[in-house]
């Protein structure tokens, strides 16, 4: 039997993973890849709109609302990761990429930057 509203030609094959949906609320999640992290309330607004992954940077409002989308240095990356551990969201933090050598970039990747 096919449920009303489901396309009869829907292909389910060897690359399809079937999961049980009982007792769950399952929704497709969006990714926002241009986040200026300036307040924790952004997470709840994103969740309400269906976003499940936030990618960006910043360390909060460094100078008014002039936020950035990169997080400078290992110390700041560690603080951002710590600050988001208990939030129901997937996060990706971007490090600051303006360096003449790879050492500073490698340090940020080791600290948890995804790019």
UniProtKB/TrEMBL annotation:
Signal peptide: none annotated. Coiled coil: none annotated. It holds the Pfam family Amidohydro_1. This is urease. It comes from uncultured prokaryote. The keyword Heme does not apply. GO terms for molecular function: nickel cation binding; urease activity. InterPro entries: Amidohydro-rel, Metal-dep_hydrolase_composite, Metal_Hydrolase, Urease_alpha_subunit, Urease_asu_c, Urease_Ni-bd.
């Amino acid at each position: 039997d096919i449920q009303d509203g489901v396309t009869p030609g829907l292909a389910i094959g060897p690359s399809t993973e079937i999961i049980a949906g009982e007792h769950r609320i399952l929704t497709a999640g969006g990714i926002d890849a241009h986040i200026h992290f300036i307040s924790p309330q952004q997470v709840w607004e994103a969740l309400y709109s269906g976003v499940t992954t936030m990618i960006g940077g910043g360390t909060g409002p460094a100078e008014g609302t002039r936020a950035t989308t990169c997080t400078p240095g290992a110390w700041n990356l560690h603080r951002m990761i710590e600050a988001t551990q208990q939030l129901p969201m997937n996060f990706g933090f971007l490090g600051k990429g303006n360096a003449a050598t790879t050492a500073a970039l490698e340090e940020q990747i080791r600290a948890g930057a995804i790019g």
